[in-house]
Structure formats: C-alpha cells, structure tokens
Description:
Elements: H1 12-63, E1 65-66, E2 80-82, E3 89-95, E4 102-109, E5 116-124, H2 132-136
Parallel strand pairs: 1-5
Antiparallel strand pairs: 2-3, 3-4, 4-5
Amino acid sequence: xxxxxxxxxxxxxxxxxxxxxxxxxxxxxxxxxxxxxxxxxxxxxxxxxxxxxxxxxxxxxxxxxxxxxxxxxxxxxxxxxxxxxxxxxxxxxxxxxxxxxxxxxxxxxxxxxxxxxxxxxxxxxxxxxxxxxxxxxxxxx
Length: 141
C-alpha cells in the first residue's frame, strides 16, 4: 500500500494571487489618499483666497475710496486699478453712472482667479477740521 503524502501550505499560484489582491487593495487605498490630499490642499487655497478677498473688501468698505489714489478723470463705467490692501488680491473699481461718489469695487484673488467679490462703496472724504487724534475718539464729550 502506498501512503499519500499530505501537502500542507500554499501553492505558488495561491501566493501570487494573494500578493496581487494585496497590491490592488493597497494601490486603491493609496490613490484615494492622494486624491484626498490634493482636494484638501485645493480647499485650503480656496479658503485662504476667500479670506483675503473678504478682508480686502471689508478694509475698503471701512475706509471708503480715497479720491487721492484715483486718476483725475475717472469716467463712469470704466474699470480702473486701485491699490490693494494686501498683496494677494487685485482691486478694480468703476464709478457708478447714477451717483458720482459711489464706486463698484471688484476684488479678485491673485492666487485663485475663481474667487472674487463685488460691492459698492462711497468715496472717502475726510473732515479737514479733524486731526487724526480727533477721528479716533468716539466724539461727544
């Protein structure tokens, strides 16, 4: 009588298939992580651009448009470059055709062109009788 030897362990084909399956799973997870990191970085850039645009709009709205920074003959409806409150945005303004002291401000991120905001703001006309210290006080004694 012949004895049949028991074969324990894995065959070469089983080992190769398990290695192939493991590689496929690792590559799928790895590519998902790469996509996630890229999307996270883009979201961070967009958030920073939105923050820069919002900050610039708020600064301009708080201070108003300084007429001394504008060309002498600014025609209504003509976009004109305006000094940016920070380096990460570009600002253009155009005079409103119906109200001469009203300007349409367009603030665009220089990092992400798809991030922009538009608003209207009045000219800044300081009171020549007030000094800088007077403007900072709450007025009324």
